[in-house]
């Protein structure tokens, strides 16, 4: 029978790391175990999370007693290693990592911290529960991670939010039955195409809005949505996960746009999807020229208008990465006259799914800058590139980034890692993304390139002022690979802490 005990911060040294933990070779010394964990097991991000939020109240430590009656932690070694390094940063294996953990330690308030342990009578008794924790779902015995649909429901603001809302809406309205699994990311791909979303489905709200609205009758909206989801579920009429943006637009023109109110009963003419009918308002009433355009034509615009829907497609002429593992992601959007658009970064075209509030805030503000403030736009891009690069290095490459590290060096390291993953077929990059990767990798050290580290540094110090033409043309060159980097910069969600 397991015994429950609690260890305080001052008694942390009473706990030993497990020399036989499966995460490393058996029989290592404590210093070697710590070095292995720091190198391979993302200890620094975990330590930072502990500094910010404390230990998870949902996770206990597990321990056994060795021959000398000392407590050996058999469950929670990553967390224990992080705590040890916060307690004594000199245990870190390199000077750079010691400095990093010293900075974290100075920010850490351990008062009130308690380490709750289940002390098992033997390793065999502990193994029953270790296997349930670390062998995945294990036929229902273990931890079952959230699938993309469940993640979207939990986070509510991922790139899959609108797709999930439409699938739930269709299931609730019995347009499809039963509620399908395995189509969420494919639906998201179709909705990321502005033509499919705005002209075919007549959705007037944004690509990431769960509370969506549409223009026209509910009957027509329901009919078109039903056709799209049914074709995706059955992989009919070319509606599959392996389509390009142009193929998705072609599908919408051929199979969705021809549907009209003459084909369905006019049972509802409000434009709100399960929202307050009294608040319903269409884009046509607001003066939006997209609202009545069901033909797929592009809109006229003045010198500071945004690009047309067709040209703003996030991944025209390109293939998208397959699901699972690091993901390729199209982004950026191009125009036949990039300098004529109002915004540098189109929110519909460049919308990587980010969970970190800081990264999301940076991206939000980058979406807001316009041609009237080109210098601020350039500085915003620099902040964004640095933020996603550092996040990628720390979360995906287990790199410790120091304050003195140069942006161009960090960016090249992250890009080189993406290139290597693509070479090993761990990352599916389109031709556009590969070209953007080469461009940014080559130009990030070129002081005359508008998005190089040196040029952006000069802008920040007020000694360089880029033109809108320079910014928009260069952004469209590198946006596809920035989309990939941003999409993959955070630690993967697998439903487990350990």
TrEMBL record:
Region of interest: Disordered: 253-340
Comp. bias (Acidic residues): 260-280
Compositional bias ranges of the Gly residues kind: 323-334
Compositional bias segments (type: Low complexity): 289-299
Domain of life: Bacteria
Protein name: ParB-like nuclease domain-containing protein
Lineage: Bacteria, Bacillati, Actinomycetota, Actinomycetes, Micrococcales
């Amino acid at each position: 029978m397991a015994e429950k005990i609690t260890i305080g911060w001052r008694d942390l040294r009473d706990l030993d790391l497990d020399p036989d933990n499966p995460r490393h070779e058996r029989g290592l010394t404590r210093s070697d175990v710590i070095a292995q964990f720091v190198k391979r097991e993302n200890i620094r991000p975990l330590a930072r999370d502990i500094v910010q939020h404390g230990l998870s109240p949902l996770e206990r430590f597990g321990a056994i007693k060795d021959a000398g009656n000392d407590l050996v932690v058999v469950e929670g070694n990553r967390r224990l290693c992080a705590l040890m390094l916060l307690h004594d940063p000199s245990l870190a294996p390199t000077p750079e990592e010691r400095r990093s953990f010293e900075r974290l330690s100075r920010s850490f308030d351990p008062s009130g911290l308690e380490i709750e342990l289940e002390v098992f009578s033997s390793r065999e008794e502990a193994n029953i529960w270790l296997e349930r924790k670390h062998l995945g779902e294990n036929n229902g015995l273990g931890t079952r991670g959230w699938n993309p649909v469940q993640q979207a429901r939990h986070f509510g603001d991922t790139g899959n939010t609108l797709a999930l809302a439409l699938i739930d809406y269709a299931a609730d309205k019995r347009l499809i039955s039963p509620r399908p699994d395995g189509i969420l990311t494919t639906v998201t791909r179709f909705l990321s195409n502005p033509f499919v979303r705005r002209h075919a489905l007549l959705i007037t709200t944004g690509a990431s809005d769960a509370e969506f609205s549409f223009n026209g009758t509910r009957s027509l909206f329901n009919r078109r949505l039903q056709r799209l989801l049914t074709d995706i579920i059955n992989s009919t009429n070319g509606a599959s996960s392996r389509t390009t943006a142009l193929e998705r637009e072609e599908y919408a023109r051929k199979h969705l746009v021809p549907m009209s109110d003459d084909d369905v009963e006019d049972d509802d003419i409000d434009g709100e999807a399960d929202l307050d009918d009294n608040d319903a308002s269409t884009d046509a009433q607001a003066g939006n020229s997209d609202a009545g355009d069901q033909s797929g034509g592009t809109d006229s615009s003045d010198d500071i208008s945004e690009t047309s829907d067709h040209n703003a497609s996030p991944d025209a002429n390109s293939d998208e990465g397959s699901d699972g593992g690091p993901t390729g992601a199209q982004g950026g959007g191009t125009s036949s006259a990039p300098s004529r658009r109002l915004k540098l970064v189109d929110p519909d075209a460049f919308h990587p799914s980010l969970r970190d509030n800081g990264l999301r805030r940076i991206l939000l503000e980058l979406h807001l800058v316009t041609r009237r403030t080109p210098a601020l736009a350039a500085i915003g891009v620099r902040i964004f590139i640095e933020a996603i690069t550092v996040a990628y290095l720390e979360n995906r490459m287990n790199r410790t980034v120091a304050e003195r590290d140069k942006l161009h060096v960090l960016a090249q390291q992250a890009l080189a890692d993406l290139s290597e993953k693509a070479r090993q077929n761990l990352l599916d990059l389109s031709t556009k993304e590969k070209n953007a990767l080469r461009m940014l990798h080559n130009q990030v050290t070129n002081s005359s390139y508008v998005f190089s580290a040196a040029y952006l540094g000069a802008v920040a110090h007020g000694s360089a002022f880029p033109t809108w033409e320079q910014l928009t043309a260069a952004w469209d060159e590198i946006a596809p690979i920035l989309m990939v980097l941003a999409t993959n910069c955070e630690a993967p969600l697998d439903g487990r802490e350990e």
